[in-house]
Amino acid sequence: MRSYLILALLIAVVAAEHVCKVGEKDYNNGQEWEVLPSKKFVMKCQVEPSGEWTVNFVACKTKSGRRVNVGETATEGKTEYKCEVHANGNPRLTIKQNAK
Q: In degrees, to the nearest 5, what angle opens at C-alpha 62 toward C-alphas 58 and 63?
């Protein structure tokens, strides 16, 4: 019985370490969240079986909250939104008014 308890505790500790730690928050593998305070950018946690993790920029949000994935462009009314990544890895949302 004691060995099962130790095994369960060990599994719980290992599983708890397989998260992305951003600030004071933990995110599970595959979990997405919006960056505050603007909520214009969407990030995603990716955890490898080894426990190594990365946070990737995956999308932007329009004024109405519509998701625009990296590399895509969306139009709402006369406004065009283009979501991309700078060469330095930073997210970029280009907003063009009076788009055709």
A: 145
pTM for the predicted model, two decimal places:
0.75
3-state secondary structure 35-87: CCCCCCEEEEEEECCCCCEEEEEEEEECCCCCEEECCCEEEECCEEEEEEECC
Instruction: Report the chain's terminal Cα–Cα distance, integer Å.
Output: 70
The string of pLDDT tens digits covering residues 29-80 is 999 999 988 889 999 999 999 889 999 999 999 999 999 999 999 999 999 9
Cα gap 88→100, rounded to integer Å: 30
* CB under 8 A, 24+ apart: contacts of 21-30: 21/53, 22/55, 27/55, 29/53
Half-sphere exposure (Cβ direction) of 15: Cα atoms closer than 13 Å:
6
